[in-house]
């Protein structure tokens, strides 16, 4: 016969003492601790994001194609403008594509801004293996 206590609600299961271990008491919730842990996690993620953006993002190096001209069967001339840090240099990758979208030529060039300037406007010839349809600047990054 199992032992029953007056504090057990009728219909609640009664387990033999010691057989299933001690029952847990309902724990106190700690919302302040959860909020602090969440805030700390968000702060760490924010710091990591800023570090990675500074390391891999290039907000100081932007390029815009002004025009592409001089299209022949073996070249295209791309005129473009690059924004660099004041007095800095950038290495830019230019490419030429044919009408069907295939790359038919590319060249890497380094541009340097005059002292005190942030913008460089330049022209670069891109040699091609077939007639190009368009000339474009793929990316610019810090020179070196």
How would you characterize this protein structure?
- It is a single chain.
- By secondary structure, this protein is of the alpha+beta class.
- The chain has two domains: 29-58; 62-142, Sandwich (Immunoglobulin-like), CATH 2.60.40.3230.
- Helix content is 18%, strand content 38%.
- It is built from one helix and six strands.
- The chain has one helix at residues 31-56, and strands at 62-69, 75-83, 89-97, 103-112, 119-127, 134-142.
- The strands form two sheets. It has a three-stranded antiparallel β-sheet with strand order 1-2-5, with no helix packed on it.
- A hairpin with a 5-residue loop joins strand 3 (89-97) and strand 4 (103-112).
- The longest helix has 26 residues, at 31-56.
- The radius of gyration is 34 Å and the shape is elongated.
- The model has no long low-confidence stretch (mean pLDDT 86).
Q: Which segments are poorly predicted (pLDDT under 50) over 5 or more consecutive residues?
A: none
Question: Average pLDDT, to the nearest integer?
Answer: 86
* Order of the strands making up the biggest sheet: 1-2-5
CATH architecture of the largest domain: Sandwich
Rounded radius of gyration (Å) = 34 Å
Helix content: 10-25%
CA distance, first residue to last residue: 86 Å
CATH topology of the largest domain: Immunoglobulin-like
Q: What is the β-strand count?
A: 6
- Tell me the name of the CATH class of the largest domain: Mainly Beta
How many individual domains?
A: 2
Derived structural class: alpha+beta
Major sheet: size, sense and barrel closure?
3 strands, antiparallel
What's the SSE pattern? HEEEEEE
Query: Percent of residues in beta strands?
Result: 35-45%
Shape: elongated
Number of helices: 1
Organism: Micromonospora chersina
InterPro entries: DUF4307
Region (Disordered): 1-23
Keywords: Membrane, Transmembrane, Transmembrane helix
């Amino acid at each position: 016969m199992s032992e029953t206590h007056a504090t057990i609600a009728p219909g609640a299961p009664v387990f033999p003492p010691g057989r299933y271990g001690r029952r847990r008491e309902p724990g106190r919730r700690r919302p302040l601790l959860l909020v602090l842990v969440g805030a700390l996690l968000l702060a760490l993620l924010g710091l990591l994001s800023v570090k990675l953006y500074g390391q891999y993002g290039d907000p100081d190096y932007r390029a815009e194609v002004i025009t592409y001209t001089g299209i022949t069967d073996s070249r295209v001339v791309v005129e473009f403008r690059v924004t660099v840090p004041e007095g800095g240099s950038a290495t830019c990758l230019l490419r030429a594509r044919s009408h069907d979208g295939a790359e038919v030529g590319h060249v890497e060039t380094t541009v340097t801004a005059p002292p005190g300037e942030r913008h460089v406007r330049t022209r670069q010839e891109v040699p091609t293996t077939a007639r190009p349809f368009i000339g474009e600047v793929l990316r610019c990054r810090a020179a070196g």
